[in-house]
């Protein structure tokens, strides 16, 4: 099976499993798990922050970050297609009591001027208080689009001018830094806090990390416990994250190359709409030209031939390349896609 639905479906490699098996563990709620402590120190150093904390998932990382940065009734400025808005069960409203001010980004990338124009006048009691700017890098619904570091710098200046916090949802932050060939600190130096997933392209089975200053991490730790996220012998999971950071970061470039290969092949089929130049990392979105194919039939034909893609809706599909998909798998998927299109349009 060639599974292109998401990079979350990756499974631990043999080396990662061995690292997990050998991990030294303790009770993390007591702060006594040495492997988890080491991972948190390693991530803080990687991102140039005072501290970091291991959490169960990217969604937990996002919801805890919202809670730590805001008060109920605050407003958060973000792109309308952000994961934290679309795909987290209204957690921002339910857990933090915040309101979202949605902007139309360019494939998810926000314009600093539009952000500034959206900031509320704090002296007007009719309006909520703007307290946080939220950016997503890479941007999932933007097709893995990348924020240029200088744009993050400019957004940071807006935040500082208005005494706001700036958080980067960096679920795939290392995809962005690898694609641009830069140190992730070239991003994180401009944000108050950030996070990234260990369980997507990095291939760990579970977990994300959130990073920021000591007070922010302290608040995250408290809210993590409040929401049931305090786990015990997390060192087995942390060991997988350490192994991923040591062995699976540079190879993300292979996923990007495979995604671009797939996008170019899809663009050659006149029943789809896609701009291969938009594929910057490992996410490929494409759309069926109206009337050319039935989306359900296409998905079913691909599945029948052992290729899985994510059907987003309205004729849109997403394919994500990752650790468990080789160049040969992509070439095979392209052949199967071409054959499916030929059969369905005959």
Describe the structure.
- Strand 12 (310-313) and strand 13 (316-320) form a beta hairpin.
- The protein folds into 2 domains: 12-247, Type I PLP-dependent aspartate aminotransferase-like (Major domain) (Aspartate Aminotransferase, domain 2, 3-Layer(aba) Sandwich); 251-344, Alpha-Beta Complex (Aspartate Aminotransferase, domain 1), CATH 3.90.1150.
- It is globular, with a radius of gyration of 21 Å.
- The longest helix has 18 residues, at 327-344.
- The model has no long low-confidence stretch (mean pLDDT 98).
- The protein has 346 residues and is of the alpha/beta class.
- It is 42% helix and 17% strand.
- The strands form 3 sheets. It has a 7-stranded mixed beta sheet, with helices on both faces. The protein has a 4-stranded antiparallel beta sheet with strand order 9-10-13-12. The protein has a two-stranded parallel ribbon with strand order 1-11.
- The two termini are 26 Å apart.
- Helix 1 packs across helix 11 and helix 3 packs across helix 10 (214-226).
- It has helices at residues 14-22, 34-47, 58-69, 83-86, 91-96, 112-118, 149-161, 173-180, 185-188, 214-226, 235-247, 252-267, 295-304, 327-344; strands spanning 2-3, 51-55, 74-79, 99-103, 129-136, 165-169, 193-197, 208-212, 272-273, 283-288, 307-308, 310-313, 316-320.
- This is Aminotransferase class I/II-fold pyridoxal phosphate-dependent enzyme.
């Amino acid at each position: 099976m060639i599974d292109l639905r998401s990079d979350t479906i990756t499974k631990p490699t043999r080396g990662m499993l061995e690292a997990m098996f050998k991990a030294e563990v303790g009770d993390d709620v007591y702060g006594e798990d040495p492997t988890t402590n080491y991972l948190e120190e390693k991530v803080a150093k990687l991102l140039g922050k005072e501290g970091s904390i291991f959490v169960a998932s990217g969604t937990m990382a996002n919801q805890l970050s919202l809670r730590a940065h805001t008060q109920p009734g605050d407003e958060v400025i973000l792109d309308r297609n952000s994961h934290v808005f679309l795909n987290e069960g209204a957690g921002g409203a339910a857990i933090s009591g915040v309101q979202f001010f949605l902007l139309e980004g360019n494939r998810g990338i926000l314009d600093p001027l539009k952000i500034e124009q959206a900031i509320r006048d704090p002296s007007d009691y009719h309006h909520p208080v703007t307290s946080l700017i939220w950016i997503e890098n890479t941007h999932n619904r933007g097709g893995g689009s990348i924020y240029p570091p200088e744009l993050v710098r400019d957004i940071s200046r807006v935040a500082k001018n208005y005494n706001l916090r700036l958080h980067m949802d960096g679920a795939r932050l290392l995809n962005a830094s690898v694609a641009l060939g830069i140190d992730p600190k070239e991003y994180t130096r401009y944000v108050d806090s950030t996070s990234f997933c260990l369980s997507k392209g990095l291939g760990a089975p579970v977990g994300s990390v959130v990073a920021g200053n000591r007070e922010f991490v302290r608040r995250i730790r408290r809210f993590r416990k409040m929401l049931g996220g305090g786990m015990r012998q997390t060192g087995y999971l942390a060991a997988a994250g350490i192994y991923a950071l040591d062995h699976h970061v540079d190879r993300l470039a292979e996923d990007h190359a495979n995604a671009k290969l797939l996008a170019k092949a899809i663009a050659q089929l006149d029943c789809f709409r896609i701009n291969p130049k938009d594929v910057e990392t490992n996410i490929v979105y494409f759309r069926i030209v109206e009337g050319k194919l039935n989306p359900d039939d296409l998905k079913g034909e691909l599945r029948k031939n052992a290729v899985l893609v994510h059907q987003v809706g309205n004729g849109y599909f997403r394919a994500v390349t990752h650790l468990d998909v080789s160049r040969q798998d992509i070439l095979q998927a392209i052949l199967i896609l071409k054959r499916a299109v030929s059969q369905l349009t005959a």
